[in-house]
Amino acid sequence: MGKFNQRNKSSAHKRNNKKFAPDPCKSDEDIVKDSIHLFYLDIDELLTNPNTTRRYKKMLRTGIGNPPRPQNAFMLYRRNQMAGPLFINRAPEDKKAKFISGEIAGFWNNETKEVMKTFYALQRMAKKKHGQIYENYKFIRNFKNQLKIRKTETYEESSVSSRSSSTETFPESSPNES
After folding, report:
1. What is the 3-state secondary structure (H, E, C) of the chain?
2. Domain named HMG box: which ranges (predicted)?
């Protein structure tokens, strides 16, 4: 399982976690408070998971379901941008998620280090808040996806072993065994 987790971590994820690690001199709350970035949502509203998702509504209705994962820095940035005037005043046909996410990703990649540092601080705050709301939360990877991965790994292993050598060797009979 250790290899699987390491394999899925992108280089950007590793690089950004090192670059925007917690500041030992300032708390995350101070970093956010001192930020000059414009927040379109209240900080507490931004840190809590949205209650308009299908997953949340199903959990309310049935009481069954997995809690959502904590929000990462980009998701917090995306939610904040979606509440801004640039996106809120758009026509419904221009609000398709795949187009908006791509556009916001472009904004995210061009943001200054100070803004990114602010949203990584928000990410850590959101993780703490998520831990308070969902105390026994533990992320469990989807079994269907694990099954697909196992099948591809066994397929790759079997195809490698079948390509290794086509000649079979038999033990030679010793002169005593006639």
Report:
1. CHHHHHHHCCHHHHHHHHHCCCCCCCCHHHHHHCCCCCCCCCHHHHHCCCCCCHHHHHHHHHCCCCCCCCCCHHHHHHHHHHCCHHHHCCCHHHCCHHHHHHHHHHHHHCCCHHHHHHHHHHHHHHHHHHHHHCCCCCCCCCHHHHHHHHHHHHHHHHHHHHHHCCCCCCCCCCCCCC
2. 67-138
The residue type at 119: F
pTM for the complete prediction?
0.69
Q: How far apart are CA 4 and CA 40, in angstroms?
A: 37
Q: What is the pLDDT of residues 47-101, one digit of tens each?
A: 998 888 888 888 888 888 788 889 999 999 999 999 999 888 888 888 888 889 9
CB atoms within 10 A of CB 100: 16
